[in-house]
Specification:
With about 230 residues, this protein is mainly alpha-helical. Helix 2 packs parallel to helix 3 and helix 5 packs parallel to helix 7 (about 170-180). The protein has 2 domains: about 15-75, no CATH class; about 95-229, no CATH class. It has helices spanning about 15-20, 25-40, 50-75, 90-120, 130-145, 150-170, 170-180, 205-229. It is built from 8 helices and no strands. It starts with 12 loop residues before the first helix and ends with a helix. It is rod-shaped.
Length: about 230
């Protein structure tokens, strides 16, 4: 026989409603009898209950016995060690370990987010780079599940982008957009068949376009002044 003790049971509304006509002493007797029967399967002695309480208890006794037998059947079918299959519950130690693992996973996710922000801002300090385009590149690398893992790797990519821009005359915006369009994980110079036409200016960022227009306007103003001065 199992040594396990029943720690809980279902208290039906019918039990509560039946006890309402009783006085406080009688109601306490009925509740005590129901509890003992439910958790220990023990019936009260005949002389322990008020006659009215005894009659009410006998009405509930069948349901209480059936409930206890159902609990016992569940105990017999449950392995003696470890949680039952599908219960979703483990020992206190196992639950504690699971909580620790969840906390570790949260910390890892937090570290990943923090490192991603460092890739966008901290590692780009003192670098002559288009920050808006670079931020899009970092989001893209995370999106394709190929995030940078080290500061050295990030700096290597930044230096390669800067060098490639100087070598080809193409803007950071263009090189990053070109790499993302081709679903590359790094930056490469466009080949001749895919590069911009030689008579076409490299694609500029909105900031570069505004700066270019301002310079052109200033040059035009100086030219007009010389021609009509």
């Amino acid at each position: 026989m199992s040594n396990e003790k029943r720690n809980s049971f279902t208290f039906y509304r019918d039990f509560y409603n039946s006890a309402q006509p009783l006085n406080d002493s009688q109601r306490l007797q009925l509740y005590e009898a129901i509890i003992k029967k439910s958790i220990d399967n023990v019936d009260p002695k005949e002389d322990e209950l008020d006659p009215l309480v005894a009659s009410m208890y006998n009405l509930a006794k069948h349901a209480l016995s059936k409930s206890y037998k159902g609990w016992m059947a569940g105990i017999k079918n449950t392995p003696s060690k470890g949680p039952s299959k599908g219960s979703g519950k483990g020992s206190p130690k196992e639950d504690k370990d699971k909580d620790k693992d969840k906390d570790k996973d949260k910390d890892k996710d937090k570290d990943k987010i923090t490192f991603k922000e460092k890739c966008k801002k901290e590692f780009t300090q003192n670098k002559d780079i288009d920050l808006q385009s670079w931020s899009k590149w970092i989001d893209y690398r995370w999106q394709i599940k190929k995030p940078y893992k080290t500061e050295k790797g990030v700096n290597g990519a930044i230096n390669k982008l800067i060098a490639l821009s100087e070598e080809t005359g193409l803007s950071h915006f263009y090189l990053i957009d070109y790499a993302m369009t081709n679903e590359w994980q790094a930056f490469y110079a466009p080949n001749k068949t895919l590069s911009q036409p030689q008579n076409q200016q490299p694609q500029l960022t909105p900031e570069e376009i505004a700066e270019k227009e301002a310079i052109e306007a200033e040059i035009k103003a100086i030219t007009d002044k010389l021609n009509y001065g």
